[in-house]
Amino acid sequence: MTSIIVVEPHAILRMGIVQLLSNVEPDLTLEGCDYSSLSKPSAENRQSDLALLSVCVSEDVDNLIGATQRAYGPKAIILLSENPGAALLTRPLPSLVAGHIPKNAAPEVLQASTRLVLAGGTCFPPSHHWATQQTDSHMAMPQEPPPWINTGPAQRCARKTCEESEMLGLTPRQYEVLILLARGYPMKMVGRHLNISVATAKAHTETLYQRLNVHNRNAAVYAAVSRGAKLGWTSIGGNPDFAQEA
Predict the structure, then answer these.
(1) What pTM was estimated for this model as a whole?
(2) CB-CB contact of 142 with 235 (8 Å)
(3) Is the dihedral angle over the CA atoms 208, 202, 196, 136 positive or is it negative?
(4) Is residue 205 part of a domain?
(5) Which of 19, 44, 81, 241 is deepest in the core (most CB within 10 A)?
(6) How far apart are CA 96 and CA 75, in angstroms?
(7) Burial of 36 (0-12, 13-18, 19+ CB in 10 A)
(8) pLDDT of res. 46
(9) % of the chain with per-residue pLDDT over 70
(10) Is residue 111 over pLDDT 60?
(11) pLDDT tens, 2-21?
(12) What's the chain's average pLDDT?
């Protein structure tokens, strides 16, 4: 049974989020609480699958994350904020944090993001993906292709790409674009890694959205995962490499 904790200090908003997420999984337990629950001693060693943690850029985010981890032991955390403020986006976050979305996001975005993180993925605004790779005072650009491109014999990767792209009704190139979108890559870097122009990357993105009948990257990734695609993750647990086959 999947367990989700919603930590939100505003009662009405908390109730709304809990209700909104009530159907993201068929076998699900949902619990809403405020910040006071984070300081209460727990009689048992709790373990939840996911925590949605409400934060503000002015609050001590690290302490809230630590308190949530101690109180509920989540496998992953999605941060909910009033807006994707720069102070939160540009700071390094613990690996436990698998997502960050604004509270005013459309309901389907919140649902898709939750499903995606439960499936082992991540959901950050594109700028965050690169902000967390900063070194010193400037941004470090990736020196190597992402793991899914370079994880073993080319034949195995090509076969995986072909199988999943056919299952999703996508071309192999559109599938490669989808995987990079799932990693949070901005469009410029999608083009750079695939050696295509930004305009071509955008065209592939729009076409794959149409074929998956979605309108944004989170919904596209969830649609793919819900149809059985791994998108480079070995399992629902989420190692971002293709499974090693015998």
Answers:
(1) 0.56
(2) no
(3) negative
(4) yes
(5) 81
(6) 7
(7) exposed
(8) 76
(9) 72
(10) yes
(11) 899 999 888 888 888 998 89
(12) 75
Cα separation, 169 vs 243, in Å, equals 22
Amino acid identity at 92: P
What whole-number distance in Å separates Cα of residue 243 and Cα of residue 196?
27
Half-sphere exposure of 43 (CA within 13 A, CB side): 0
Angle, CA 242 vertex, CA 174 and CA 144 arms, to 5°: 75
CATH of the domain at 174: 3.40.50.2300
Residue 99: its H or E element: strand 97-102
Nearest to 14 by CA among 74, 49, 46, 54: 54
Residues 108 and 151 placed together within one structural domain of the fold: no
Domain residues for the domain of 118 are 2-135
Query: What number is the average pLDDT over the span 37-55?
Result: 79
pLDDT at position 9: 85
